[in-house]
TrEMBL record, chain A:
Organism placement in taxonomy: Bacteria, Pseudomonadati, Pseudomonadota, Alphaproteobacteria, Rhodobacterales
Gene3D superfamilies in the cross-refs: MetI-like
Residues annotated as domain ABC transmembrane type-1: 83-274
PANTHER family: INNER MEMBRANE ABC TRANSPORTER PERMEASE PROTEIN YCJP (PTHR32243:SF18), MALTOSE TRANSPORT SYSTEM PERMEASE-RELATED (PTHR32243)
Protein name: ABC transporter permease
UniProtKB keywords: Cell membrane, Membrane, Transmembrane, Transmembrane helix, Transport
Compartments where located: Cell membrane
Family named by the database record: Belongs to the binding-protein-dependent transport system permease family.
From TrEMBL, chain B:
Subcellular location: Cell membrane
Organism: Jannaschia pagri
Name of the protein in its database record: Sugar ABC transporter permease
Superkingdom classification of source: Bacteria
Keywords: Cell membrane, Membrane, Transmembrane, Transmembrane helix, Transport
Length: 289, 302
């Protein structure tokens, strides 16, 4: 492949390098600052050369550490707890969304039944409902009717509901491609519809499930507005704690950059591992509509 | 379609997902429409709130702050989407060739969209910081005066636009590149044999063929631009004054700071209708394209 590539004008490579630098620059800046002390960040002679320190991470994660860092005078458990909440909420909401979403997508693709058209259309329509629109009603219902405000379960419920339409829609396009003969053969061998689905169809749509899982996890991991409205002290997620520590007048940039970096690590890893699936998920709607 | 399945089977597959979407998505939307006719604050149950009919909506019409935030939202969405379309499509046309490093660029370009908007806001807030921020440091180092990035109304608006362009131009780029690479090679070859120059190729072949994808991409971006909240919340929280207070932020503040849930619900309702219209436009357009493509195929076969 590389040997066949015709020689290209070096200007294109220069542009490529500039674009990569512009996209990465702010993120690299945050990661670099997370390894600096505040005096280094704010000093007028800030430079690219500095001795990295993990003090900011020790401050943020103090109650997860087996030792007591010297520079931490009073351990603030807020961030460590939020990290645990974020993990639990994102993982559980992703798992539930995937299981329910692929079952629903399967029904919509493979069966003809009353209400199929309405369900399809509704699913497509509710995909565009933004969190800001759900804020008031979800706060009201969760608080006064369901009594699940302030709980992780309440936050998980709304994330599952918000992600289902997208997951159903994207998995439909993968299920359509599964050869129906495979399912018919399984049926002939005496497998019921549920066994056919879990043992024959699911293994074949793994790439679709991966893309759906990344997008779902990302919503739970990154979302702020609804988490902020629904969480209490014990169920706050990382984005909520970051915004809370930003509103104070004197911002502790080092620690904030460290928490921001920790919040950015999972999405960065997903991107490096599965960029192809992510691009498939993004382009599916527009290019092959 | 599978034959000889039990008539209940599809419903069993669908029921759990449908139940959750009804309880936690459709019911809240209905609830919000109802709430928009109430004078309701967060310390009351919804049953205790007074029914005030259309008063929330009539008040919205005369509310200068709401009108301002509606205008800011429209301005923000149209400016960012126009700039991002030009940059994204332009870059895709420029880089649609076999270059080493394209895979890396595509991977790197997804990052700003994948990391939390809160983190994007955080990074840019640091870079815009009046004294320690990257931009003012740079201006200082080349002897220019500092700029009031987030503290002056017009500057703050430009600043949120710049951050959004950084975050979302890659989306347009990736989609247009995918569209370009799926164009029929034969059309391009034919034009090239006829002696078309690079610009003619772009204007008369590539762009017209990409148009359907570009329109859908732009609509997707407009819908998203109406939903932007977190980056702006972290950068300016709507200020200074109301200069960057987009609709989503206004809704959130009306509910949590001013504690007027009914009024916030009425605003949410308007935003929802706006988004619904855009979404329907997008689907109608995609359907139209499908029908047209099918008719062309039919004609080719006859």
């Amino acid at each position: 492949m590389a040997t066949q590539t015709p020689r290209q004008n070096p200007a294109f490579y220069a542009l490529l390098v500039v674009l990569i630098f512009m996209a990465l620059g702010p993120i690299v800046l945050m990661i670099a600052n997370s390894f600096k002390l505040n005096v280094q960040i704010t000093s007028p002679t800030a430079s690219l050369l500095f001795t990295p320190t993990i003090q900011n991470y020790e401050t943020a994660l103090c109650h997860w550490l087996p030792y007591e860092p010297e520079h931490v005078r009073r351990c603030d458990r807020t961030f460590g707890r939020a990290l645990g909440n974020s993990l639990i909420i994102s993982l559980i909401s992703t798992a539930i969304t995937l299981v329910l979403g692929c079952m629903a997508a399967y029904a919509l693709v493979r069966f003809r039944f009353m209400g199929r058209g309405v369900t399809s259309l509704t699913t497509l329509m509710v995909r565009m409902v933004p969190p800001a629109v759900l804020l008031v009603p979800v706060f009201g219902i969760w608080t006064f009717q369901f009594g699940i405000d302030g709980t992780r379960a309440g936050i998980i419920l709304i994330y599952v509901a918000m992600n289902l339409p997208f997951v159903i829609w994207i998995l439909q396009s993968f299920i359509v491609q599964v050869p129906i003969q495979l399912e018919e053969a399984a049926r002939m061998d005496g497998a019921g519809p549920f066994r056919t689905f879990f043992l024959v169809v699911l293994p074949l749509i793994k790439p679709g499930l991966a893309a759906a899982a990344i997008f779902t996890f990302r919503v739970g991991w990154n979302e702020f507005l609804l988490a902020n409205a629904l969480a209490d002290r014990g169920s706050r997620t990382v984005p909520v704690t970051i915004v809370n520590s930003l509103t104070e007048y004197d911002i502790d940039w080092g620690v904030i950059m460290a928490t921001g970096t920790l919040l950015a690590v999972p999405p960065i890893l997903f991107t490096l591992v599965a960029s192809r699936q992510i691009i498939t998920g993004m382009t599916a709607g527009a290019v092959k509509g | 379609m599978l034959a000889n399945a039990n008539r209940m089977t599809p419903y069993l597959f669908l029921a759990p997902a449908a139940l959750i979407m009804i309880v936690a998505l459709l019911y809240p939307i209905g609830y919000m429409i109802y709430a928009s006719f109430l004078d309701w604050n967060p310390s009351q149950r919804i049953g205790e709130a007074d029914w005030i009919g259309l008063r929330n909506y009539t008040e919205l019409l005369g509310d200068a702050a709401f009108r301002e935030s509606f205008w800011v939202t429209l301005k923000f969405a149209s400016i960012v989407v126009s700039i991002e379309m030009v940059l994204g499509v332009g870059l895709a046309l420029l880089l649609d060739r076999e270059l080493r490093g394209m895979t890396l660029l595509r991977t790197v370009f997804i990052l700003p969209m994948m990391i939390a908007p809160i983190v994007v806001g955080l990074v840019w807030r640091y870079m815009y910081h009046p004294t320690v921020g990257t931009f003012n440091r740079f201006l200082d180092s080349i002897g220019l005066p500092s700029a009031p990035w987030l503290s002056d109304g017009d500057w703050a608006f430009a600043s949120i636009v710049i951050a959004d362009i950084w975050q979302w131009t890659p989306f347009i780029f990736i989609l247009s590149l995918a569209a370009l690479q799926s164009l029929p090679r034969s059309a391009m070859e034919a034009a090239r044999i006829d002696g078309a120059t690079g610009w003619q190729l772009i204007w008369h072949i590539k762009l017209p063929l990409m148009l359907p994808v570009l329109i859908v991409t732009a609509l997707l971006r407009i819908i998203d631009a109406f939903k932007v909240l977190e980056v702006i919340l972290v950068l300016t929280n709507g200020g200074p004054g109301l200069s960057t207070e987009i609709l989503a932020l206004r809704i959130s503040r009306t509910a949590s700071e001013f504690r007027e849930l009914g009024y916030a619900a009425a605003m949410s309702n308007l935003l929802l209708i706006l988004l619904l219209v855009l979404t329907i436009a997008m689907f109608a357009y995609t359907k139209l394209q499908e029908v047209r493509a099918a008719r062309l195929r039919q004609a080719a076969e006859d």
